[in-house]
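A.,

Following up on our hallway conversation. Structure tokens first:
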């Protein structure tokens, strides 16, 4: 079989994401749905994409950034990845979600991002949630809730605000403990380094 990039999208059994078998040459396989209408179910579930977002968050943490990572998914394929780059770019708007959304029009050929889902490790802030609404993201799936600043249903509900031209479907709390642990580990390290500098 010729070598290509399919192993990146369709990992084999040894992949740490836990995808347990090779899907062959397509993303959709296996049993038909209950209605037997010919529509195939996707093999990759939400956990798979959130693990990809967690790997992006780890890249942020490794670079000294707040560990938020995000991936964009269309038709079952990850089409873009990003992570926080506020410190690197010295830009308060360089959140993972905004960086991701800004990259997508070049990929899909339109600013309207219909049919695209975003997986992100922390609940979007008001800025990022507003960008999702304005760009017509179909769904956001986030890990860690943010009761203080989260704008996808926790502190605010920008994604589902009545009267908006578009509402974003929200799935909250996916793999929340894993996402929270990454955040907590990052800030433990930040505090420990601050104490070392003082001593």
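Then the amino acids I'd put at each of the 199 positions:
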């Amino acid at each position: 079989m010729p070598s290509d990039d399919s192993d990146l999208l369709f990992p084999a059994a040894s992949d740490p994401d836990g995808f347990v078998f090779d899907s062959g040459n397509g993303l959709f396989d296996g049993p038909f749905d209950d209605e037997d209408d010919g529509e195939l179910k996707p093999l990759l579930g939400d956990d798979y994409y959130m693990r990809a977002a967690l790997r992006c968050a780890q890249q942020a943490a490794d670079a000294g950034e707040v560990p938020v990572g995000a991936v964009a998914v269309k038709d079952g394929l990850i089409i873009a990845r990003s992570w926080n780059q506020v410190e690197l770019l010295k830009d308060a708007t360089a959140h993972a979600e905004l960086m991701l959304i800004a990259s997508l029009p070049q990929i899909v050929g339109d600013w309207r991002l219909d049919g695209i889902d975003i997986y992100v490790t922390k609940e979007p802030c008001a800025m990022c949630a507003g960008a999702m609404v304005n760009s017509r993201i179909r769904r956001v799936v986030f890990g860690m809730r943010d009761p203080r600043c989260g704008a996808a249903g926790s502190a605010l509900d920008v994604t589902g605000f009545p009267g908006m031209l578009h509402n974003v479907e929200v799935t909250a709390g996916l793999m929340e403990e894993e996402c929270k642990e990454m955040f907590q580990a990052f800030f433990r390290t930040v505090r420990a380094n601050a104490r070392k500098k003082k001593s």
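The beta strands are 28-32, 40-42, 69-74, 77-83, 116-122, 139-144, 169-171. Curious whether your intuition agrees with the design.

B.
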